[in-house]
Specification:
5 helices; flat; mainly alpha; 78% helix
Length: 130
């Protein structure tokens, strides 16, 4: 029983830290940084209760950012164009042999990013004003 708890704690530590680090990187890069930081904190706070005090402030800011992202038609249009550009770039990187770092690894990352952006945009739009 103790071994399962230790394995679960290690898995939570690795997953939470990865989400936290990727989210921190996406705070300065294009992407849903605050949402990933929040996800990382939620995973880590389950195993490390001292981190629970950071969850609510990050959740509040992430929800405000999500609402701001759909606050005007221009922002929604810009997000849709960005998603379309990511998807198109993913297809180009997959089928055209010339781009730097070409291949399916880069292409799949771009395509997944485009779909994640669309999903987050839809989620933000659906939950607007709650």
């Amino acid at each position: 029983m103790r071994g399962k708890k230790s394995v679960g704690r290690v898995v939570a530590l690795v997953a939470g830290t990865a989400l936290l680090l990727v989210g921190a990187a996406l705070l300065v890069l294009p992407g849903p940084g605050l949402l990933l930081v929040l996800a990382g904190l939620l995973v880590l706070s389950g195993q490390f209760p001292a981190l629970a005090r950071y969850v609510d402030p990050v959740r509040d800011r992430a929800m405000r950012a999500a609402e701001e992202s759909v606050s005007s038609p221009w922002r929604v249009a810009a997000s849709l164009l960005t998603a379309a550009a990511l998807l198109a770039a993913g297809v180009v990187w997959a089928v055209v042999p010339g781009p730097p770092f070409g291949g399916w690894a880069t292409a799949s990352g771009l395509i997944v990013s485009g779909f994640v952006l669309l999903a987050l945009l839809a989620w933000s739009r659906r939950n607007r004003g709650r």
